[in-house]
Amino acid sequence: MSQDLHPASIEVSNGEGILEIDWSDGHHSEYSLFGLRKNCPCVLCRGGHGNMNTFDRSLFFVEPTQHVEIEDIKQVGNHAIKIFWNDGHSNGMYQWESLRELCPCKQCYPEQE
Question: Which residues form the Gamma-butyrobetaine hydroxylase-like N-terminal domain (predicted)?
Answer without folding.
Answer: 11-100
